[in-house]
C-alpha cells in the first residue's frame, strides 16, 4: 500500500480528479477470471439468496513508486503508477434484519485460500467493516440492519498488493448496490479516499498515475495484459515502519525519472522504480533473495518489489514461463501465484 497507514481516520476528502459515472457502462467491470468458490465452512447458499451481491476486489502492483519529502503535515509526497491484476478476492454481501434500535452492524467472516495465513485482525477492525460503517455515516443512514459480508482471500496481507484497500473499495460498491445508492454518487469516492490512499484507485482500476500522498488521480494509462508472477516470502513489512526507516535514510528518485513516469501514457512505458526497496529489504532480507533470484531467471523480463513489500512481481515472457517461475518459486519455500495485468477494478459480478 502507498501511505495508507498514514492517513488519519478523519482526513478531509474531495470527490477526486474523476467521478464514478464513467464506470457505469464500463465493459471491463466483469472482465475477470472466476478463480474460486467460498472456502469450506462458509454457507454459500446463504449469500446466493435474493438480495445478495457478489463482488471482485483485484490486487495491484506499483510499477513506479516515488516517495518524496515529508511534508509539514507529516505526510509524504508520493508519485506512483499502480496497475491492477486479474488476481482478486471475492466478497459476498447481503442485508439481514436487526432488532429495533440496534443500528448498523457488520457481520464479517473471512476465509484465506491457497495456503494464505488467516487475517490477524478482528472483524470489527477489518477495513471492510470500517468502509461500510463510514459510508453509512456519510449517507446519514440510520436504519437498524446487519450487513453480512463474506470475504474469500486470495491476495496475501502485508504484501504491497493492496488486498485490504481493494476489499474496502468492493465493499463500498456492494453497500451502494444494497442501499440503492447511484454508482455516480460522489460519497462513494469520498469515503474511499478517507479510508486510505489506495482505496479510491480500485474504484477505477486499470492503470493510473497518482500524486499528492498517492491519492490524487493525475492521469490514466493504457493498461497491459501480460503475464506476471507474484512472489512473497514468509513475514511482511509494515508500511508505517518502512516510512519511518525511509525517513532515517531517504533515497530520492531523480527529477528526470519522475518526469518519464509522469509523461507515460502506456503502462509498458513506465520506468520500474521503487525507492522503498532498500529499506524494505533491510527489514526483510528475504526480499533481496527473491529480487536476486527473479532478476537472474531466464523466463523473467523484469521484476520489482510492490509498495513497501513484501511481494515481488516478476514480468514474464509468456503464460508458460510464468507457470514455471511460480512453480520454481514455490519449490524454494516462497508463496507464489501467476496472474496477468488487466483493466480490473472493484466491481459486482453475477451471483452464482
Topology (elements, then pairings):
Blueprint: H1 44-47, E1 53-70, E2 76-97, E3 104-112, H2 127-139, E4 145-153, H3 163-179, H4 186-195, H5 199-204, E5 207-211, E6 216-221, E7 227-232, H6 239-248, H7 255-263, E8 273-274, H8 277-283, H9 286-295, E9 300-305, E10 312-316, H10 319-331, E11 335-340, E12 347-349
Parallel strand pairs: 1-8, 3-4
Antiparallel strand pairs: 1-2, 1-12, 2-4, 2-5, 5-6, 7-10, 7-11, 9-10
Helix pairs in contact: 2-3, 2-4, 3-4
Structure description:
Strands 1, 2, 3, 4, 5, 6, 8 and 12 form an eight-stranded mixed β-sheet that branches. Strands 9-10-7-11 form a four-stranded antiparallel β-sheet, covered by helices on one side. The longest helix is centred in the middle third of the chain and has 17 residues, at 163-179. 48% of the residues are buried. It is 28% helix and 28% strand. It has helices at residues 44-47, 127-139, 163-179, 186-195, 199-204, 239-248, 255-263, 277-283, 286-295, 319-331, and strands at 53-70, 76-97, 104-112, 145-153, 207-211, 216-221, 227-232, 273-274, 300-305, 312-316, 335-340, 347-349. It has a single domain (40-346), classed as Ribosomal Protein S5, domain 2, CATH 3.30.230. Helix 2 links the parallel strand 3 and strand 4.
